[in-house]
């Protein structure tokens, strides 16, 4: 699916009035263990996805090696994008937090299978201990495709 982003400057010329945008939470259910954050926020044509981890529907960490946890993490990330009307092809930037940077190769192999060219801009950092002893967490910014905006 192709994704297109119109510029505010272009849209402002069409309407000749300021565009008003508001911050809206994307509803996907409660955060794990009732933590106080939104899974994602929509602001205009942008979507800000909170850090996602290998958490199952019961709020428990999915056990496994870095590959299994990265796959589960990116499936959760994808689910939130789709709930907001976006998809993995619309991801502009991600930040990957690893508990141990020595697991970079395993994470990168799985990560690469989720994103097609051009891949999003990405930063990967060793974060040390992550919440719930997860091995990986991913946050990101995407945009909403023109035909899916409400």
Strand content: 15-25%
Radius of gyration: 16 Å
State the share of residues found in helices, binned by percent: 25-40%
CATH architecture: 2-Layer Sandwich
Task: Please state the overall shape, judged from the principal axes of the Cα atoms.
Answer: globular
Total strand segments: 6
- Tally of individual helices: 3
The CATH class is Alpha Beta
The overall pLDDT average reads 88
Give the assembly state of these chains: single chain
The total number of structural domains is: 1
Give the termini separation.
18 Å
Strand order of the largest sheet: 1-2-3-6-4-5
Unreliable residue stretches = none
CATH fold field value: 60s Ribosomal Protein L30, Chain: A
Description:
The protein has helices spanning 8-15, 66-84, 104-114; strands at 23-25, 40-43, 46-52, 91-98, 121-126, 136-143. It has 150 residues and is of the alpha+beta class. The protein has a single domain, classed as RutC-like (60s Ribosomal Protein L30, Chain: A). Helix 2 packs parallel to helix 3.
């Amino acid at each position: 699916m192709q994704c297109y982003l119109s510029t505010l400057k272009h849209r402002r010329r069409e309407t000749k009035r300021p565009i008003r945008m508001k911050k809206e939470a994307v509803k996907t259910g409660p955060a794990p263990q009732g933590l106080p954050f939104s899974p994602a926020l929509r602001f205009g044509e942008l979507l800000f996805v909170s850090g996602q981890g290998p958490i199952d529907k019961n709020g428990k960490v999915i056990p496994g090696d870095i590959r299994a946890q990265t796959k589960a993490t990116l499936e959760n990330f994808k689910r939130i994008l789709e709930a907001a009307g976006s998809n993995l092809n619309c991801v502009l930037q991600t930040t990957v937090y690893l508990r141990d940077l020595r697991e970079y190769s395993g994470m990168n192999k799985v990560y690469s299978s989720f994103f097609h060219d051009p891949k999003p801009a990405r930063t990967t950092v060793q974060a040390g201990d992550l919440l719930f002893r997860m091995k990986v967490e991913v946050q990101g910014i995407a945009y909403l495709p023109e035909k899916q905006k409400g």
